[in-house]
Amino acid sequence: MPSADPSAETPRTSAYEPVSPQEQEPVRPTREDEVARSGSELVGGPVGRRVLFAASWWTPVRVIALLALGMFALGMIQKMPCYNGAWFFGASSQYTHACYSDIPHLYQGRGFADGLVPYFDRLPGDMEYLEYPVLTGVFMEMASWVTPGSGSIQHQEKIYWMVNAGILMACTAVIAVCVARTHRRRPWDALLVALAPAFALTATINWDLLAVALTAAAMLMWSRSRPVAFGVLLGLATAAKLYPVLILGPLLILCWRAGRWRAFGTALLGTVSAWLVVNLPVMLLASDGWSKFYTFSQERGVDFGSFWLILSQRMDSPLTTDTVNTLATALMLLACLGVGALGLTAPRRPRFAQLAFLVVAAFILTNKVYSPQYVLWLIPLAALARPRWRDFLIWQACEVAYFLGIWLYLAYTTSGDAHKGLPTEGYQLAIVVHLVGTLYLCAVVVRDILMPERDVVRLAGDDDPSGGVLDGSRDVFVLGTARYAGRAALHTAQAPTVKWGSAADVPR
Fold first, then answer.
1. Which of 13, 139, 345, 497 has its CA 20 to 30 A from that of 403?
2. DSSP 3-state assignment of 502?
């Protein structure tokens, strides 16, 4: 007897099965995800088909955006002990309350309280110039304009944090909406972003959400086959943080495999042009200040969150900064080569979000520093690459454990003889936990690429919803045994109407 609950329908078991008319409709997460189905009991159980598609103001995108804003607000509340004084009175207090943020400290520390112009005016002390990319520096400067210059410096720093938090909240809404719209049939996957605990906890530590929002918007534009807009937004994101430019690597591999050179060239041109528009004026007029971000990245030593720190703390003769730079660069290049080889040899062309997640994760894992807010770079990509609640929550649990671990370690090192907090060995364990969590998510993404019949997105009947012009494209360049995978599937396909990736669409 068939189930009365539409959410209990049996999902497809093969990526090569025919696509039914029902599979053209929005995907219900409670149908395909056991954790989502169990969690839905908290709000009355799985949503039925009639309710899901009924006309209502409460569309998935609006619900997700509001939930994301609500979680961001909870993250702000979590910072209240610091807002009420822990930032200013006692170094260890902001760590024991796990509410540290760079934003209020850099208001004075980087000259905004004194009206200094980033990149043009020298800072007192050893830093000399602002060590952030240009667009982030503009963000910081504009927030300082809104901050009143009257009152005590502590009052100004609190207002500065609040102004920045308001703008970062707007970035959060942009991220949630863009992720919800990137996969047209899978808006509810963006709940992974909206409800991510690590997102709420780390959103106001630094200014990373500006680059994350621009990257999410770029991914949305690419999914809509708009390479010019994608390139412009990615160029702006790279002007705010370095990591977004890495996404061009996976895009090159996928466009190579699909023969979409014109789209890639357009995206690359847009990226370079937008980056130059932002950077070139500062580069020409204040070259020393502009280059500080890049020289600082090379000169800084091993720092929090990385496996390099564990090695440094356990070695009798720690590696020099130059040696670590060389080794980290070599490891990153090897990881990129591995991702490239995976993209060209996989039995079915990987989805854009999958390779994008892997290359950004590789950059973070091999870097000299893995700050707690770097998880923000990965969360939107993870939601698109592996929209499974179980794996996502395992990873988030590891990141929350690290979030608590780093602040307890800093509390231990700043509390004097009291030693309140987590000793070095405990902090090293916290580092291992969050590195292993990220590696675990990378592993399941790689498994989905090598075994596309297990990819939840493709089981639902899609090819590459974030791929734009790549979605449904035939392969023109494939390495290894992947070229034969489609031919084998040809003999098992029974229906003529299939999504791309079945043998009917694989070139012979």
1. 139
2. strand
| 279 closest CA partner among 246, 240, 248, 244 | 240
Ranges of beta strands (E only) in 108-186 are none
Give φ, ψ of 304 to 5 degrees.
-60, 145
Give bridge partners of residue 502 from the DSSP assignment: 500
Q: Which of 478, 479, 475 is nearest to 505 (CA)?
A: 475
Tell me if 472 sits within 8 A of 19, measured CB to CB. no
Of the listed ranges 169-178, 304-313, 471-480, the one predicted with least confidence: 471-480
Residue 301 dihedral angles phi and psi, to the nearest 5°? -85, -175
Angle between helix axes 375-385 and 208-223 (nearest 10 degrees) is 20
Out of 31-40, 101-110, 135-144, 390-399, which region has the weakest mean confidence (pLDDT)?
Answer: 31-40
- Tokens for 93, please give them: 């207090």
Place of tokens 């009152």: 151
pTM: 0.88
113 alpha-carbon distance from chain centroid: 31
Minimal CA–CA distance to 108: which of 74, 152, 71?
Answer: 152
